[in-house]
Design a protein that fits this description.
The complex is a heterodimer. By secondary structure, chain A is α/β, with parallel strands linked by helices. Chain A has helices at 16-19, 37-47, 57-65, 114-127, 146-150, 169-175, 211-222, 235-240, 243-272, 281-285, 297-309, 319-322, and strands spanning 3-9, 28-34, 52-56, 71-74, 88-90, 105-108, 135-138, 159-162, 180-181, 204-206, 229-234. Chain A has a six-stranded mixed β-sheet with strand order 8-7-6-9-5-10, with helices on one face. A five-stranded mixed β-sheet of chain A has the order 2-1-3-11-4. In chain A, α3 (57-65) crosses α11 (297-309). The longest helix of chain A is centred in the C-terminal third of the chain and has 30 residues, at 243-272. By secondary structure, chain B is α/β, with parallel strands linked by helices. In chain B, the strands form two sheets. Chain B has a six-stranded mixed β-sheet with strand order 8-7-6-9-5-10, covered by helices on one side. The chains are: A alpha/beta, B alpha/beta. At the A-B interface, α7, α9 and α10 of A face α7 and α9 of B.
Chain lengths: 330, 331
């Protein structure tokens, strides 16, 4: 009889083959819930509901540094983005460059979320704007936030105000109570509540007018494609079934291989017809995402460094502390 | 009242995947699905009409409809396309530097009537002035296991189609020099095809078009045609009892195609974000190339019908009304 595990997972090309069961880990039957990450991480941090789930890398670092041993990390990284390119600002806030964020009021759904970790890291290390230079307004309420679930307190020198329940980042951006916001989340779920369409609002603009160009600049300079989610498995499951870790890794590698093959299939007609010049065939076939510790060590170490720099963790958490021991050679 | 229970044979590609894995349901139908390669699928359909619904070679659908074989009704769903003429291989020692040099040469083809060969010959004749009768054909599939044999098709007058003996194949004859060129080379050996040689990497063999990607784009820019290979069919007896099936199928495949469109954009997002593919290609990669229905594909289908008649496969130019179900004509 297979091991029966509950799984919470997000929906993207690298997870589809797991969700639709084209790939099944050996020896494991999943009961799968496709869940929005904000809600998934809160349910895990607060109640540890799922045996296996994706997890905010930033929150995983924090709980490991606190000695919270409920979860072991799996080096499977399904989502990435150049998060700092998503900062939105009010047009009347006189913010023409990242440095102008100094002294400004900035909204954030969850101070400790991985997207915000990367944004503050890029602001500080690329543009010289430290967290203490801004005044933060956090949307999620303590009862439904990741911070509340892990007992997080604002680092010394950083001001994090609570946005009251009747307001949201969206409403405060529109009313002018905020000058800027990082990683605006508009899809409502159990933990987020903003609904305004800031991307098409006449008073709001992106900090980086050409945000794609800024993403590419950052990637060329640093080689880092910021990881958002890792995965975790409950420690008690690994202690009883240590084989589950590598079997899970192998399954997610297979799912990633399918995503790689499907991308090439999906773009075949666009290359053949010349809608995309044939010289980009190799680029489109290039594998950007590889799971495992080795391929992602540099990115993970950058996140760990930012986490400590921002006082989310009292020391630089090492990669070896984050992941199950049998996954460290992956 | 229970759903209709039907058998479906289908190929695996981004546009069919949501049907295969059940994400898209055809209203009113429960399918028993068989994922098959097209060579075997079409033979099994033409030979014994095994499946209620399947893909079918557009060339072969035109041929059987022109001969009064009305076992199947067409549905304008077109899951696979390619610029087939760019798939021609030649021997390096055969002195074939341009398409015109194919005149007087021996050329292999898996199945003379297959749609990819129809397009290859059509483009050779209309773009490069090389007619079918200018070449000597060698066909690999044996009469007992070929599409032509299944429908009792005889080759058009003036065209020479020799049978490749069972112990040989297009691949082996390309390597031995018994063939100077081949079209629609299919290395995937199954119950129908038997070539196994890797012609893509053989030192004596090269593609006719040195830059085949450039030739695809040239042809597409000039003609606007992206050649269709497979259409779909439903057995006439099923269609007559359940005429609603045609538009339900079309709607379901449109939804499946919509999913393929969305998935392509999701699949390429990281490559655009990192600049591996320049961001100005975002729009091109978001552009929809494939639409089902008669209207969006009329010009391509009419070209294929004209080629079919020009090559003597059909005695007249087949009309859309003869190929597709009446309730799909307006699609």
């Amino acid at each position: 009889m297979n091991l029966q595990l509950s799984l919470a997972i997000t929906n993207n090309p690298r997870t589809w083959p797991i969700i639709d069961s084209r790939v099944t880990p050996e020896g494991i039957d999943f009961t799968t819930s496709v869940v929005d990450p904000s809600e998934m991480f809160w349910r895990q941090l607060r109640y540890a509901e799922f045996d296996v789930s994706e997890m905010s890398m930033s929150s995983l670092m924090m709980i490991r540094a606190q000695g919270d041993e409920r979860f072991m990390g799996l080096p499977v990284f399904t989502t990435r983005r150049f998060f700092h390119t998503n900062i939105l600002v009010r047009k009347d806030a006189k913010i023409d460059s990242p440095a102008d964020l100094k002294g400004k009021r900035i909204g954030v759904p969850e101070y400790q979320q991985t997207a915000a970790l990367w944004i503050r890291g890029a602001l500080e290390n690329e543009f010289g704007v430290a967290p203490k230079d801004m005044t933060f307004f956090m949307e999620r309420l303590p009862s439904r936030s990741h911070a509340g679930a892990v007992g997080f307190k604002a680092p010394p020198g950083v001001t994090i105000n609570q946005i009251p329940a009747e307001k949201g980042i969206g409403s405060m951006m529109v009313s002018g109570e905020l000058d800027a916001c990082m990683f605006y989340i508009r899809n409502q779920n159990l933990v987020d509540r903003s609904s305004e369409d800031l991307h098409n609002h006449p008073d709001i603009k992106p900090l980086f007018p050409d945000s794609t160009a800024e993403g590419i600049r950052y990637y060329k300079k640093t080689g880092i494609y910021p990881i958002n989610h890792g995965m975790v498995i409950r420690r008690e499951v690994v202690e009883k079934q240590p084989w589950a870790v590598i079997n899970l890794l192998k399954a997610f590698d297979q799912a990633n291989d399918i995503a790689e093959r499907e991308r090439r299939e999906h773009v075949g007609y666009h290359l053949e017809t010349g809608l995309v010049q044939p010289q980009y065939r190799d680029a489109l076939a290039k594998q950007i995402i590889t799971h495992g510790v080795k391929a992602n060590r540099e990115t993970l170490e950058a996140a760990a460094k930012y986490s400590n720099q921002q006082s989310l963790t009292p020391r630089v958490v090492t990669v070896d502390e984050l992941f199950a021991p049998n996954a460290l050679a992956s | 009242m229970a759903n209709l229970r039907l058998s479906l044979a289908i190929t695996d590609n981004p546009r069919t995947r949501a049907i295969i894995d059940g994400r898209v349901i055809v209203d009113g139908v429960d399918f028993a699905k068989t994922v098959l390669g097209p060579a075997e699928m079409f033979w099994r359909q033409l030979n014994k009409a095994e499946f209620d619904v399947s893909e079918l070679s557009m060339s072969e659908l035109m041929i059987i409809r022109s001969r009064g074989d009305d076992r199947f009704v067409g549905i304008p769903i077109f899951t696979t396309r390619r610029f087939y003429h760019t798939g021609i291989f030649v021997r390096k020692d055969a002195k074939i530097d341009s398409p015109a040099d194919l005149k007087g040469k021996t050329i292999g083809v898996p199945e003379y009537i297959q749609t990819s060969a129809l397009w290859t010959r059509g483009v050779l004749e209309s773009e490069f002035g090389v007619a079918a009768k200018d070449m000597t054909f060698f066909m690999e599939r044996l009469r007992a296991r070929c599409h032509a044999g299944a429908i009792g098709f005889d080759y058009p007058p003036g065209v020479t189609v020799n049978q490749i003996p069972q112990e040989k194949s297009i691949g082996s004859m390309m390597l031995s020099g018994e063939l100077q060129a081949c079209m629609s080379y299919n290395r995937h050996s199954d119950v129908i095809d038997r070539s196994t040689a890797d012609l893509d990497h053989h030192p004596d063999i090269r593609p006719l078009f040195a830059d085949s990607a450039a030739e695809c784009i040239r042809y597409y820019k000039k003609t606007g045609i992206y050649p269709i290979n497979h259409g779909m069919v439903v057995k006439r007896e099923v269609f007559e009892k359940h005429p609603w099936l045609v538009l339900n199928l079309l709607k379901a495949f449109n939804r499946s195609n919509d999913i393929a469109e969305r998935e392509r954009r999701e699949q390429v997002a990281y490559h655009l974000e990192t600049g591996l593919v320049p961001p100005d290609y975002r729009q091109a990669l978001g552009k929809r190339l494939i639409n089902f229905g008669v209207k969006a594909n009329r010009e391509v289908l009419e070209t294929a019908a004209r080629y079919s008649n020009q090559q003597g496969l059909t005695p007249r130019v087949m009309k859309m009304e003869e190929l597709f179900a009446p309730n799909a004509q307006d699609s």
